[in-house]
Structures are given as C-alpha cells and as structure tokens.
Give the backbone structure.
Amino acid sequence: MKKDYKRIFKIYLFILKRKIRKLKQLDFKKLFSDLNNLLEKDKEEEFVYNDSLVFYKNEFLRLSKKYNISEVELKGNHHEMDYDFMFNIFLSNEKLHKEFIDELFPSKKYYSSMNELVDDGFDIQYFFYAKEEKNIESIYDARSICVKRKSDDKIFVGYILPTTSTNIVYEDYFFISNSVYAYYYNTKTIELGGKAESNIVDILKYMESNDISDLHFQLLDEYSYYFTARFGQEIIRITNAPINKEYVDKIYNQALIKIGKDSLSNPPEVSGLLKERLLSKSGKLTDRTFRFHSMFDNKGQYQGRAVSIRKLMNYEEISNLGLNGLNYNKKAIQLLNKASSNSHGIILITGKTNSGKSTLLYCILSSLYDEGRRIKSIESPIEVVAPFSQVDLTRTEDAEEKYKMTREIAVSALLRQDPDVVLLQEIRSKAEVEEFVELGLKGHLAYSTAHTGSVQETILRVLKSSPDQKVLKETLKLIVTQELIGKKCQSCKGVINKESKCEVCNDLGVKGLLPVYEIAYFKDLGSLDITDMKKVVKSNAVEYISKKDIAREYKALDLIADKDYIRIMTYEKDLRE
Ligand SMILES: [Zn+2]
C-alpha cells in the first residue's frame, strides 16, 4: 500500500519535470521540495485505507444511483492494494456534478469557474496535471490540476472526479468542474498523443505524422471541446481531457486566415483548403492539402462550432498507387480503362462526400496524362494539385463582377483551347449538367462527379436536367457509384477482446479502406429506354458490376466485417436481379 502511495507521487514528479522547459516561469524548485516534504510527512502517518474506501464505495454507489450516473467502473485488486476501485464517470452537466461532489465530499470545496479559484487567492500561473500515461495505470484518466495559493505558497490539488487518489495523494484537495480543468489543460499547451500543439500548423503536422485522415472538434459543453479522429471507418476520441474553447477559437481563426476568409465575419458555415508543406511519417517533405469545414453547432443549451479537417491524398500519392493500389478489381480496371480510351463522351463518378470520388478521378486522369493526353479541369476549389492545366473558380470568387471567372466563362474559354480530356468538378445545377453533356457531345472526353447513390439514380438525375435520351445515350460511356468501407484488420481479423490486443489496428478491428462500387459501362444502347436500367442490363447493352458482386468478393477473401457485408447484401440493388 505504501509503495503505491509513493509511486503516484513519483509519477506526478515525472510529469512535472517533463513540463519544465515549457513553463519556465514557475518556481519548480519550490514545488519539488513541497511535494517531497509531503512524501516524507505522509510516510510517518498511518493511513486508514480500507475504512474510507468502503465508506466511499458505498456512498458512491448510493449517489450514482440517485444522480443516474450511467458509467461506473469498480475494480478490485489492482496494484497490490487490498481493495481498490475506480470511478469512471463523466458528468457534462455541471450542476449535477457539483451536487454529486458536494454530497459525497461535504467538506471539500467545488470550483465551477476560473474566477472562483482566482477569488480564493490561487495563482493561475502555477499548475500541472496528470494525464493519461500508457504504462501508469494508477493515474489513468486522472483529471487533476495542481495550484498554489498566493498568500502562503501552499499547494493544492484539484480533481474533477472522486477517485481513490484523492485520499492517497493529497490532503488539501478540492474539486473542479470540467471548464476549470479545460482552462488549465489548454492555457499553455494542448496535448495530442503527448505532443504539445499550439496552432493550426501543429494540428496539421500532427495529422500528417500520425496518419490521421480526419480530425473533428466536437462541442462538449459551454467551455470545452473534445477531439475525435477517424481511423478507417471508426471515429475515435483522441483527447482524454476537455479542450478549452478559447483554444479551439484560436485554431479556428488561424484556419480562416489561412484559407483567405475574413475571421471577423463569423459566418454560419465556412469551408476551404489548407495547404502546407509537411514532414511525412517517412521523413519526406510533402505538399499536403486539407479540407477545412466548420459550422455552427449546438449541444443541448450550449453553442459553438463543429470543425472538421480532412487530409487529402496528393497527386503523387494517387498516381503512384494507380487503380490496383486503390483496390479496384480486374474487371473494374478494365471497364475504367475502356471508358478512358474513348475520344469523346461523358463519364460520371458518383457517391456521397468522402466516398473517394476525387481519388478515383485523379487516379484515372493521371494515367491519361501519362499517356500524353491534353487535360483541362475546372474546379472550385482545386483539391489535388496536378501537373495538367487546372482552373480554380474560387480564385476570382471575391473579385469584381467583370473580373470574375465564372463556370460559364471557364467552360467556353476551355473549349477554345480544345483539350482531349475535360474535368468539370461536381455537377449540381441544371445548367452544369447541360454543359457537361454538351462537352461529351462536342468531341471531348468529359469527366465529372455527382452526389447520387446508384447508376439508375444518376441517369434519372441527368435526364431531369438534360431530358434528351437520344443525346445522353450517344454520349454516356460510364457511371461509377461508390463508397468506402473499413478493411478488416488482417492481423487480428477483427476479433478484439480484453485478452487479445491488436497493435496493428489499435484494437479497432479495421485497418485501411476498400472501395465498394457499382459500375456500368455503356456499349450500344440503341432504342433501349434507359429510365429502366434493369431491362438495359439484362439486354447486355452494358457491362455491369454491382456492389453485391464486390461485397461477395471481399467476403470470400475475409476482407470485410459481417455487418458491412450484410448491409450491402440487404440494401444495395443489383440491376441483374
Ligand atoms: Zn487488428
């Protein structure tokens, strides 16, 4: 028991020492000697452990019932202790949290705001905290701060949760709200995986070096946020502690300046591209583009912003991978290449946001570029910087009317340059769809993307804006509709439990993504009615792959989870059936 007691202090000291370089203004000598004195002092005193533990355990269980706390974790026999338990609660409702603590520890003070701490004479410059340490189970998830009282330099420890460490570590302790903790946690630095991050470029560096494709800031309460990251299909919370709202505001404003938006206007929704030259995991300098998106968000009565940052693949990475590297099967690659070999016509790549449309598109264009075809693209904005000619419509977005490069102007200018291959990024409006079909008709091979979810839906959508079936049948070469699903971790095969930990996928069960696609390559449509694609497919006028075909293929190779397989087999259509 004594051993653990001492160990926890050593851990605190260790964490504190690591912070020295960052927080030079603190009187660490004094803090060390205070803590060491405390250690010495506590050695001499007999600590009645079991009695208080039993008491708190019973009290805690009673109160957790009363306050309807859903997550409670009780642990026995860890760290050679006779009996230990750990509370794992998270109360985002501060009023309830305060009531709970007040009742459990009536003699201890609860600070719900920074001002209350300052009013009580605490030095806000003076703090350290214990954070999640992988190998140190005893303070796992401990949310604590250490502050100094100005009047007598006495050190106090503040906890956000009632844990046994409150008894063990410090006599002079108090409880704090989430918001107070968030303030301490992020006033100087923010910890993401142990590394200090303080601005938007650091965030981007962090994403690059940790292979994180998506980072989200989610509103936790009035004062704080938490961060989640996407690994494959899974969204994982990566910050253990709440993140101070002021910090998130700072990052948001920096991002706005970087994407060239007015940081004072506070629009309800903002999006743009963040471009940065970063050191990759393999130590290579990489030009990286991130898609930044932010919008007003509410959580209960709290208001803030939801922020998401998505890392995009760059041209070099996409063209190096090729269609094989993007996991398309032989037949799909054959159909995609067949469509690309046409001198004119239209090719549509469709799917929801983040379904890998751009990646597939640039993969095709890079091979056409390598063949020596002349490519022109009109994009808004340019997500993947390519070696061929790209017009970025967002560049003149804020220009005076007469200097504005509109989509219409860009298309007619582009036609005069007579390229072989044209990319019109994302067709939405009637005019855009018409323009696109027109390009295919006028002797260009035209590519575009849309948000539709199936081959049939895409055709109906195009016909709505460009209703001449004859024209469409003449120009239409290929439609791909796709989504991305998580690839089963090939090391653990998705079997995760307490006994078997997986280092390869970090216990997620999935590692990487796989495309699931429906492809229709149109041969000779003749007099067929394309509003009924089932008939068309059956008549052999198209070469066809369904999402079910792909799911079956993955299932046979044990590459996808059962739940994904069942979903696709249940909800996706196969036009041959
Ligand atoms: Zn695994």
